[in-house]
Design brief:
Largest sheet: 7 strands, mixed
Number of helices: 0
């Protein structure tokens, strides 16, 4: 079992930045691929970024150049640095743990409870 707890969400103006964190506990954090997803009201859960290691990280085209995923295996923590935020980035952001660094939510085994990010225009 892996327990995931997100933090760092909040209200920010367009163009601002936020850094999300996801603290993991349970099984060995470094064994897992980690991902960030988001879900806006009335929309399906959307892939944001995934990282197997610092050298193997992928982000969605919609956030490329603005968001950066990273992980600190010594601290069992996953991060999502979000810059140049836009109102369309407003959503609940979830971190997830799985075996492979893929974009399909169904491939992840463990999920956090989510943290709200609201970007005002």
């Amino acid at each position: 079992q892996v327990q995931l707890v997100e933090s760092g969400g909040g209200l920010v103006q367009a163009g601002g930045s936020l850094r999300l964190s996801c603290a993991a506990s349970g099984r060995t954090f470094s064994d897992y691929a980690m991902g960030w997803f988001r879900q806006a009201p009335g929309k399906e859960r959307e892939f944001v970024a995934t990282a197997l290691s610092s050298a193997a990280a992928y982000v969605a085209d919609s956030v490329k150049g603005r968001f950066t995923i990273s992980r600190d295996n010594a601290k069992n923590t996953l991060y999502l640095q979000m810059n140049s935020l836009k109102p369309e980035d407003t959503a609940v952001y979830y971190c997830a743990a799985g075996v492979h660094p893929v974009s399909r939510a169904a491939m992840y085994d463990y999920w956090g409870q989510g943290t709200q990010v609201t970007v005002s225009s």
